[in-house]
Write a sequence for this structure.
């Protein structure tokens, strides 16, 4: 990455030792989709390939390929696009994978249970393989901030990658405010972040369902909150599962910058604001 430098710890790049695959239902289309995660050479980064389309077009997981989409992160070129990349990208970052080829059959990544747990399971099966090339890391060198209305994001210099998030839903008697902070490494990610599912207030998600925009959505792949109750029979996996999932999303969105060292502090951000802030960081730190 332009403007980045080798990690001070001398860490090497990583890929996976063997390919793994999974299939399931897409959240937006409701159609069966499938993916394979394959090893890749050093300095490849993460590259999506739509193997179901003529010419098998590729889409690198980089900020310049992000396109607007409701309630998810979408990557696109003139030839192809992939929706819902954030949970898989979060797992790749959280589990420490730098380089991988992702073969996709369908327009989106499978929803699984709405968390990154399945993708972590796949990466554990694939096993991490260390490559003999230094990892290049974007280091936050100065405080950077971004604000729009009640959404605020700050990046501070740090020798670790840490994310702190404040969630605020004053209209929800169940949610109200939640806060969580985590150092992003494989153990913390696997135990504290990966199992946390996407969530929505019932009144927010209902219009999408009525317009047929979430044909694969249901209680099996999302937490749905109605007034002061969680509609899912099993309830939440953690009392603060919702804010932890916001961190999961942010980790995936920020992996589009590549490996990073810094403390990201967020108040009420979502995919569009995460991407806007990541682009600002790229502009300032990688001129």
């Amino acid at each position: 990455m332009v403007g980045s430098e080798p990690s001070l710890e001398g860490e090497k790049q990583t890929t996976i030792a063997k390919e793994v695959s999974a299939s399931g239902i897409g959240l937006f289309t409701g159609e069966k989709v499938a993916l394979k995660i394959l090893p890749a050479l050093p300095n490849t980064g993460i590259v999506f390939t739509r193997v179901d389309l003529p010419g098998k077009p590729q889409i690198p997981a980089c900020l310049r390929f992000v396109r607007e989409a409701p309630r998810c992160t979408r990557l696109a070129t003139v030839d192809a696009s992939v929706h819902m990349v954030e949970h898989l990208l979060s797992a790749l970052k959280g589990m420490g994978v730098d380089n991988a080829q992702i073969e996709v059959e369908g327009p989106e990544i499978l929803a699984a249970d709405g968390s990154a747990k399945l993708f972590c399971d796949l990466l554990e099966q694939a096993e991490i393989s260390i490559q003999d090339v230094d990892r290049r890391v974007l280091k936050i060198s100065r405080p950077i901030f971004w604000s729009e209305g009640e959404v605020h994001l700050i990046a501070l210099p740090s020798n670790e990658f840490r994310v702190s998030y404040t969630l605020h839903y004053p209209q929800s008697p169940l949610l109200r405010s939640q806060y969580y902070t985590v150092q992003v490494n494989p153990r913390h990610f696997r135990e504290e972040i990966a199992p946390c599912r996407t969530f929505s207030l019932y009144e927010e998600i209902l219009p999408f369902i009525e317009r047929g925009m979430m044909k694969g959505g249901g209680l099996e792949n999302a937490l749905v909150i109605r007034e002061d109750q969680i509609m899912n029979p099993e309830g939440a996996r953690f009392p603060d599962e919702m804010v932890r999932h916001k961190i999961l999303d942010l980790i995936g969105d920020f992996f589009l910058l590549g490996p990073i060292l810094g403390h990201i502090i967020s108040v009420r951000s979502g995919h569009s604001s995460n991407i806007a802030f990541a682009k600002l960081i790229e502009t300032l730190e990688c001129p």
About this structure: DSSP finds six helices and 20 strands in the chain. Helices lie at 86-94, 117-126, 186-193, 202-210, 241-254, 271-285. The radius of gyration is 18 Å.
